[in-house]
Structures are given as structure tokens and as C-alpha cells.
Design a protein that fits this description.
The protein is an alpha+beta fold. It folds into 3 domains: 108 residues, Butyryl-Coa Dehydrogenase, subunit A, domain 1 (Orthogonal Bundle); 90 residues, Beta Barrel (Butyryl-CoA Dehydrogenase, subunit A, domain 2); 145 residues, Butyryl-CoA Dehydrogenase, subunit A, domain 3 (Up-down Bundle). It has a 4-stranded mixed β-sheet with strand order 1-4-5-8. A hairpin with a 2-residue loop joins strand 9 and strand 10. Helix 4 packs antiparallel against helix 9, helix 8 packs parallel to helix 10 and helix 10 packs antiparallel against helix 11.
Length: 358
Amino acid sequence: MEFGLSQEQRLLQDMSNKFLSEQVDLDTVRTIAAGEGDDRAIWQGLSDLGIAGLMIPEACGGVGLGALDAAVIAECLGYHVTPSPFIASAVMAPVALLAANREQLLTAIASGQQRVGIAFGEALGARNNAGVSVDTNADSPTLSGTCLFVLDADANHYLIADCDKNIFLVAADAPGLTRNSLTTVDKTRSTCELKLDAVAAELISDDPAVYHRALDLGRTMQAADSLGAAQYMLDQSVSYAMAREQFNRVIASFQAVKHMCAEMVSILEPCRAMVWYAGHALDALPEEAKLQACQVKSHLSEVGQFVAKTATEVHGGMGFTDLVGLHYWFKRIGANRQLLGSPELVRMEAARAQGFID
């Protein structure tokens, strides 16, 4: 048996790469990262291709595909360091909204008209001066507190998880909600801080399994995104080494450079099958899904960091310049390493899932 992508998945991959190659060039990324543009046009184009509704059922206007298909798309987005809310709006949000039968909002997401951000940080581990409290004494629940590192500062709605893994839906323009954009190392994707002062909220799910399903999907997509970004940095390193000359020889002929590129290939290539298997497990092997998501997130965080560092070294001083632009992929990998759980936190969850710790 050969475990690989189907013909349909390869067509999906080719279609996405073609669109991104044409619409998301380095100048576009540079403009958005500088705060002189936004990702709305890119996201609408991806929505027209069905990417926004990839995991939304056909009955709600989506495509109705699975986690492995989403991982294929995430790798393409990472390769082109695409500014988009894919992980939050197209992958994590539909899980909770499907559990609550919010068909109207799902239809709006699939068409690209609405975006839903993810605020799961306080459920992962509250930080100083942050945290969310829930008041259930009123006719409907209200939320107060602060959420940090919320995925997608331009969303129309947010899914907020409290420390008990309950998930609430709030509108971005709800009275009492203040949204402050955060400056992070990765300027190709927006994050924000939400300040909540008795904000009216709708309880979407009180089942921790829904929270964990969404989180596992998000972590797997981040791993796939890092895989794509690392693959781009490797490809650029080989291309640069074949063109750059020193002492009347291309530097690709130097043994040290050969070893650096070969080491990047050897450490990165097995990760692709690991990402595919994690995506497969999320739909077909639920008993393995949690562990695979944790392992692939933590492993790609380390591999991505190594490839980013080594690829920059192959480029020498040019690797740090904005002219080459390699730093956008470097920073993308760094942000993926920390968002939705650092490697240390995720490995602890993996150990807990296997019963090694309480």
C-alpha cells in the first residue's frame, strides 16, 4: 500500500500553488507586512477557489473535504508565506460552529464574507494580566477579561475559550469589546488582544472534545505551514548556491555548502509524511489524533527552526536583507513555533496523552 496524495489532492495542490504564485509575490507580502495593505483581496480569491469553505459541508456552501486536504493547502500557504486567516477561519472555527449548527455563519465563512478569529490562548495557559471570566447570572452569558495573541485581528467574530474549554462566540463590534492589534515577529498574519468588559456572548460548545478537536486541527495546520515555509527556504538555498560564485566557482561546489543543503533535505523530507499522517489521523484515527497533532507540531517547530537557520547561513549576508526577503519565511516559522503552544508545552500534552504524566 502506498500512502500518498490522491489525484484530486494533487490537483488541489497544483491549483492553489498556481493561484498563489500569481497573486502572492514578494512585493505583495512586503506591502502587507509593512502595514500598507491587507489580506482581504487574497482571502477573497482563495474563497472563490473554495479554500475558505474547504472543511465546511456542501450543504452550507462549502467543499466538505477533510483534514488531510486542509494540510495540503496549509503547506502551499506556508510555501508562499501567504497572508491569510486560513488556520483560524477555515479550519478551527468550522469545528465549533458545526457542533452548534450555525449554518448561516458557516455559509458566510465559505463565501469569504465573514471571518472568525480564534482566542484559545487563555484555555492553553493564562498569562499575567490576562484571562477570561464568565458571568452566567444574566439572561445570556457575558465575558470579561483579556485574551492575548488572538488569531486574526480583522475577523468579524471571535471564538473564545475559557479555562474550562467552553467556547463562546462574540461579535467583533459587540459593546464592551476592545480590539488592539499586536506586533509580533510575523507581520504576514495579524494577531490581536481582546479586552472584554461584560461582552454578550453565545455559548457555542461546553464539550471539551470540540475544543480539543479544533486545537488539534490548528496545530496540524501550523506544522504543515512550517513545512511549506521550510521547503521554500531550502529551495531558495539550493538556487542561490547554484548561482552565487566565489573564487570563480559556484558555492554549490563547496563541500560545506553541499553538506548544509543535504542536511536540510534529510531532516525535512520525512516531515511531509508525518504531516500527512497527522491529517489522516484527525479524520480516520480519532484515538491517535491528539498524539499525532502534538508530535507533528513540536517536531516541525524544531525542524523548521533548523532549516530556517541553515538556509540563512547558506545565503550569507544576503540572507538578512529585505531584498531577498528570506526573513519573512524565517519569522513565519518562528511564529508557528509559539502560537497554539510551544514545543515544550505540546510535548507535555503528548506525554499526558500517553499516560506518562498526570
